[in-house]
Amino acid sequence: MTETVAFPPSRRRPRIDLLRGFAILAMIAYHFTWDLGFLGFIKLNIAQTEWGMNIARGIAASFLTLVGISLALANAQGFDFGAFWRRLVLIGGAAALVTLGTWFAFPDAFIFMGVLHCIALSSLIAAAFWCAPLTVTLAGAALAFTLPLFVHNVSPWPFGWFLGLAAYTPRTNDYVPLFPWLGFVLSGLAIGQIFANSTRGIFSTAPLASKPAEKLAQAGRHGLLIYLVHQPVLIGGLSAILFVFGPGEEDRQASAFDSQCVQACIVQRDRAACEEGCTCVTAKLLEQGYFKQSGAVSERPDAPQKISDAVQACMKP
To answer: How far apart are CA 191 and CA 237, in angstroms?
Structure first.
């Protein structure tokens, strides 16, 4: 998802770019699924189910690990402070644009600590480990992974949510706090340090054998630009289709209700339990034909009782 400092032609690792390209492709597919649910093309937002969220976590982990690997490889012959700071400013600026854009688009769930924010902050911290012994880097990664298991009561705003150490998850459309995600960057840094001088496997400097692989590697080399433009393109295109054809009102309202239910629930409950419970609540309301009624769900006189009955039937105590 980030621009990587270029190696001299003989030192570029095209397969690292290819792996980043695959991660970008997976990210676009995931966001496309999320957009389908958000815009009401499908009744339930599959991307917000537990397995969907696990896929999202896996994609984020792959990006962050590649950030660490790239940091080690790009500076294997000596730390390039100029290139590092230019890259950090670029990513930080992109993160600020994401915050600003989502503030206007989703004011109740804007992104303040998403994957770009985490990459920028983690890169700054990982740079301090660049010349540290490998054991120190690995210890730092282990600490980052395990700290949230023992510390989870820091005051939410601002430090608890940025660090990932608050008692509950904030309402935001992309949440990748420093802990435990810094652990993936430091793990990638350690991997890059170990194999910095290797030219085998994914660290080979040989050109890619096929045109499709090379195209995907090129996408990997321009990941930051793709990250910034892909969602506006996807949402814009799907919104145009929605304007012309549009899913049924019942589907749209059911999808919106399910998303709102999950976002409201996770303030007090575990996300997995919320997703399971909200899916059940939405399904029961669909069975009753509840979403066939016109007007906003929250404005209907029978809304509180019907929703309460469905919640009692679905939500575990």
So the answer is: 39
